[in-house]
Design brief:
The structure holds 2 protein chains of 2 kinds. By secondary structure, chain A is an alpha/beta fold. Chain A has helices at residues 41-49, 88-92, 101-114, 130-142, 160-177, 188-194, 225-241, 244-252; strands at residues 2-10, 16-25, 30-35, 56-61, 64-65, 73-76, 148-152, 180-185, 197-202, 207-213. Helices cover 35% and strands 23% of the residues of chain A. Chain B contains 10 helices and no strands. Classes of the chains: A alpha/beta, B mainly alpha.
Chain lengths: 261, 283
């Protein structure tokens, strides 16, 4: 279980990005974090990844405190961030250098096949389209078999068609080993499409505003009425999170774990 | 039926033949294009001297330059001078590259060292390197050591700047990928920083080598008994312009060849680059 216990983050320049964010995320759960810009979504994700540890509070994974990047936690960024001097296959195998070469090769071949890029194994990253590059990034993050996979707006730079395609593909890949997914997004439809739970955040300082459960069976139909209902619920929460009056009213009351839903 | 099979096949063979011949043409035509101007000038000057419109005493015609080179080569003088110059450039380049790479890497990687070292190095860089000549002669004598030192100084600065700048310019986002996969310090250098820095490093080496060739002439001007720079001075003092031009031509050939060597050895390591030119590589 991934436990976020009152995670706060103040940057050295004094910006108070995150205020006592608490949540418990079960193994295998898919959680989407959504909120207006500057609400600390990415700060939170980087704290979970151990890239920028929290100023106070703690992130623990199965009772291990996370203060630096951990082998059980993988991350996919908004950009693919492939290493341009490595072939597609070597990029996917980048995190497997501890394994014997044969084992590494086998896993890379399997992953390439799984993301549908078997014919691109020897290609350079510059030869890939945006969607293909992001699929390589997904494969690179999944191939060490992390327990938790973090995604920082992973599809936001892609066109609408590629995006929905990759969302389906991600779910498909997730089903292989069922890691915990924590994804930051600003796309409500994406959140409802993928997540079991949508955490809505509120800006300045970033804190948890609402926790919306998505009780929809998979595969989900983007055009169904139920899907639309959940989407509307998230949108309402999002609207209220940006309501200035409410923000001021609530900032006096107990902060951090305001559960709206 | 036969027609429909034959016709596309015929078209295809024509289609593949045409670009192939065009590729062959451009492959040879493009470098040849660069030769047109110098060849025309050489032939033109040769003709002018041959026709007696100029005596060609101060500007020797190509035939005389070639004859001078052949003469020098026959007596074994030429290879002695080339070897002397080459070994000076090689030694100076080696020392300059080693020092530039080490200090550049330290300054790029370690902020404290940069704050400590870089201002001094930048100040030294502002000194025209030829200004060191008298001091080097006093310190190191008039023989090889001072010459190699001067060349090394010339090579050092572009390499130092190139390495430091390249390390500072490494994309933080790529470094973060290394952190996510928990690379140790040495692994981070080997697997992320070195490959990221390599393209800029090759450019720095080429700039450094160019300066090395520049400085070897300066070094050989300050009193040498052999070397291509000596040939230049000797040609001036004895009034042999053909020998001067011959030395210049050999400098050009050597400079271009050594530069091409760096380019060719580094090319396989840089194939991944998203180059502007559709096909890179030497000429």
């Amino acid at each position: 279980m991934l436990v976020l216990g009152g995670v706060s983050k103040t940057y050295p320049n004094g910006v108070h990005a995150l205020e006592r964010f608490s949540a418990e995320i079960r193994l295998g759960e898919i959680v989407a974090i959504i909120g207006g810009s500057g609400c600390g979504k990415s700060t939170l994700l980087r704290a979970i990844a151990g890239l920028d540890p929290a100023t106070s509070g703690a992130v623990t994974l199965d009772d291990i405190a996370i203060t630096a990047p951990h082998e059980k936690i993988g991350i996919i960024f908004q950009e693919p961030r492939l290493l341009p001097w490595l072939s597609v296959a070597d990029n996917i195998g980048f995190g497997l250098s501890d394994l014997p070469a044969a084992e590494r090769r086998a896993r890379v071949v399997r992953a390439l096949d799984r993301v549908g890029l078997a014919d691109k194994a020897r290609a350079w990253p510059r030869e890939l389209s945006g969607g293909q590059a992001q699929r390589v990034a997904i494969a690179r993050a999944l191939v060490p078999q992390p327990e938790v996979l973090l995604l920082d707006e992973p599809f936001s730079a892609l066109d609408a068609f590629t995006r929905t395609d990759l969302q389906d593909h991600l779910l498909d890949l997730w089903a292989d080993a069922r890691p915990t997914l924590v994804m930051v997004t600003h796309d409500v439809e994406e959140a409802v499409m993928l997540a079991d739970r949508v955490l809505v955040m509120r800006p300045r300082p970033g804190r948890l505003f609402a926790d919306v459960a998505v009780n929809l069976a998979r595969p989900r139909d983007r055009k169904s009425q139920l899907f639309d209902q959940v989407k509307r619920r998230v949108l309402t929460a999002l609207d209220r999170s940006l309501d200035r009056n409410l923000m001021e009213a609530q900032s006096n009351s107990s902060a951090g774990e305001a559960m709206w839903w | 039926m036969v027609m429909t099979v034959d016709l596309p096949a015929l078209e295809r063979s024509e289609a593949t033949a045409a670009p192939a011949s065009r590729v062959r043409l451009t492959r040879y035509a493009r470098p040849a294009l660069g030769l047109v101007l110098p060849l025309a000038l050489a032939v033109g000057w040769e003709a002018i001297v041959h026709l007696g419109w100029s005596n060609g005493r101060l500007v020797p015609p190509p035939s005389k330059v070639i004859a001078t080179i052949i003469d020098l080569a026959r007596t074994g003088e030429l290879s002695r001078h080339i070897l002397a110059t080459l070994s000076r450039v090689a030694a100076g380049f080696a020392f300059g590259v080693i020092a530039g790479t080490l200090l550049g890497a330290i300054s790029g990687y370690w902020a404290l060292a940069r704050q400590l070292l870089d201002p001094t190095i930048q100040a030294l860089r502002a000194i025209p390197s030829i200004a060191w000549v008298p001091l080097f002669i006093l310190w190191l004598g008039i023989f090889e050591t001072s010459k190699v030192a001067l060349i090394a100084v010339g090579v050092f600065f572009p390499v130092y700047l190139g390495v430091m700048g390249a390390i500072l310019a490494v994309d933080r986002k790529i470094v973060e990928v290394g952190r996510i996969f928990r690379l140790s310090g040495p692994a981070m250098i080997r697997r992320i920083l070195l490959p990221a820095v390599l393209p800029a490093y090759v450019v720095a080496l080429r700039v450094g080598l160019g300066l090395g060739w520049m400085f070897v002439v300066a070094a050989e001007f300050m009193g040498a008994s052999e070397g291509l720079g000596y040939l230049l001075i000797d040609g001036q003092q004895l009034g042999k312009p053909a020998q001067i031009v011959a030395a210049i031509v050999i400098f050009a050939i050597l400079g271009k060849t050594t530069d091409w060597l760096i380019e060719v050895t580094s090319a396989p390591l840089l194939r991944w680059q998203d180059a502007f030119a559709p096909q890179g590589g030497g000429s």
